[in-house]
Amino acid sequence: VDLLIVLFLEALRAIASLALISAGLAIIFGMMRVINLAHGEFLMLGGYAAIVATKAGINIWISILLISPIAVGLIGVTIERTIIRFLYGRPRDTMLATWGLSLLLVGLITTIFGNTTSGISAPPGSLQVGDHRIAAYSLIITAIAVAVFAAIWAFFRYSRFGLIARSTMQNADMSAALGVNTSRVYAVTFGAGAGLAGLAGGVLAPVTGIVPTIGAAYVAKAFITVIGGGPAVLAGTISASVLFGAIDQIVTYLSTPVIGEVALLLAAVVLLRFLPQGITGYFFRRAA
Amino acid sequence: MSVTKGTSGLIIAAAIGLILLAAVPKICDPVVLIELTSYVILAVLALSLGLIWGYGGILCFGQSAFFGIGAYAYTIAVINLGDSTVPLLLSVLVPGLFAALLGFFLFYARVTDVYFGVITLTVTLILYKVMNSTSGAQYAIGNAPLGGYNGIPAIPPINLPGRPDLSLTSEGLFYVSGLVLLATYLGLHVVLRSRFGQVVVAIRENERRAELLGYDARFFKLAVFSIGGAIAGLAGCLFANWGLFISPDVFGLAQSAQVIIWVIVGGTGTLLGPIVGCFVIQWITTQLGTQQLLNASLVLGAILIGFVLLVPKGVVPTLGQSIQWVRLRSNVAVEEKRVP
Asked: What gap in Å lies between CA B205 and CA B196, rounded to an integer?
């Protein structure tokens, strides 16, 4: 029974990390339809922001929860203004340009920090479950993921900017006609997505350590989670995280972490073959 | 008339290619020749993506997957068999079949462009991870240990059929690679001018219209994708011969990105473009590697962004257009002079 509880908590952590990784992309790709292949690098930047800030003597929670998202959010806005805004409505070119961006950021960070793993130690503390111990930090990750999704949902559902953003994504011309500065809305939304990616990077930095090329490990996972989720962005991302996270952890437990990740990716490819609209797309179509 | 013109163009291209092939080893010193050989091999890879992206309209982010599969297929088979003839065939067949399988999953599901790009990227990542995790003696196919992230060293080179003792020298590899590049280039020209090639281009231009005319777009896309995969596999085989060493890095994202950059810099929708792009970018990368001032992927990323934003058609078509424009201008000038 203890082992089952530990497994359950581990699965919960995997699900929460997947959801966190995907949250920023759910906004940038799910809502704005911008295929941001540099998403993994946003996470990487968030990780470095947290590390640099912590090493500069700032409290670890402040650097993870505040500095990472704000720094990467600002970078995101800059990138939107200089590159992305020329490419709306051209998905292929967006893909190529953001891939170029991803290479550029990897190169830049390698030049600055070198091609080595940097890390900060996770806040200590652990939980005793029978004979097993698990780090308290994995529970914190879960809590942060829940909080982030609740915040995104509440923000887009209830705040005035959330309403404007949703209307702009639905019909930009109409919103512009009603006096909304759509280009600013796009920039801010992109920045918010980037900021969330930065937050995820910061939160995961103590767990994984950060190398300049770590983005590659995240970007595919994030994309298949959001795509697998389908058109209902938040619900879809959560349900896909649950499915893929559970598969990952179960297979990891049965074999090795590498096989677990491969199982996750394979499951996603097969899922997309049979449910091209993603999970929520399938169920909504049935309901309709 | 245009057909004969096209044919004479091909003959001229073939002649130039053969002359270059014969002359270069005489002029260059061996170190430069080895460098050039790698460019030639990678240009074959560039051509494969130039085919499926530029003509098939399929944006594949995982071309290096087929390249790597070809390299590994050749390596594993040649270590087990000793003679290189069958492995050579396998290095074309295995990636071709893999592309067909993947294409069957994706084209017949009518996955859109964007998802196609993401999924091919994912598949490449899977291969990279799997190959990286195969270090240790328990991972071996026949006599060939896979070696994980250490790769497989000391690959036996291509030999004359039936004579494992007569294998390729580095100069020989240049000739073989050059011939493969030339044959691929000319072969693709012929394929693209055939009925099949015309249908493929028609599907790129307007998939629905082509389908309404009775062509099964899924089948034609699958076919062109498989051909591209097979060519990339052949390039992979040559690449394994070039370094006589292969590691999972051939599946890496950097490799996939490079292929895309060659094609976009050279120009989509041409066959010359990817070759030119490959030579130019590889030369730049090598130069950057020697001077250590700027990180190579930083520069490559900047080049990619710059081309997408500023020169989306690539160098060769843009140059072609400006030449035509200049010609038209001069014709107009001549006309104007005649008028009075």
From this structure: 14
Supply the pTM of this predicted model.
0.80
* pLDDT score of A126 more than 70: no
Q: Do A258 and B130 touch (CB under 8 A)?
A: yes
Taking 60 as the threshold, does the pLDDT of residue B337 lie above it? no
- What's the half-sphere exposure (Cβ side, CA atoms, 13 Å) at A284? 12
Q: Does A275 touch chain B (CB under 8 A)?
A: no
Cβ pair B109:A273 closer than 8 A: yes
Q: Which residues of B touch A99 (CB under 8 A)?
A: 61, 257, 260, 304
Rounded to 5°, angle at Cα B337 from B334 and B340? 145
Residue of B nearest to A277 (CA): B111
Assess contact for A38 and A102: CB atoms under 8 A: yes
Cβ of A96 under 8 Å from any chain B Cβ? Answer: yes
By CA distance, what is B303's nearest residue in A? A100
Sign, CA dihedral B205-B207-B209-B213, equals positive
Q: How far apart are CA B196 and CA B223, in angstroms?
A: 10
Q: Sign of dihedral through CA atoms A13, A16, A18, A20?
A: negative
| Residues B14-31: tens digit of each pLDDT | 788 778 777 777 777 777
A148-181 exposure pattern, b = at least 16 Cβ within 10 A, e = fewer:
bbeebeeebeeeeebebbebbbeebeebeeeebe
3-state SS class at A154: helix
**Partners of residue B304 in chain A, C-beta under 8 Å:** 96-97, 99-100, 103
Tell me what the mean pLDDT of segment B300-328 comes to.
76
Between A152-161, A222-231, A276-285, the lowest mean confidence (pLDDT) is in A276-285
CB pairs under 8 A between A and B: 122
- Tell me what pLDDT residue A209 has: 72
Radius of gyration in angstroms for the set of CA atoms belonging to chain A, rounded to a whole number? 19
Nearest-CA residue of chain B relative to A109? Answer: B298
- The secondary structure of chain A in percent helix, strand, coil, rounded to multiples of 5, reads 80, 5, 15
| Angstrom distance (rounded) from CA A267 to CA A259 | 12
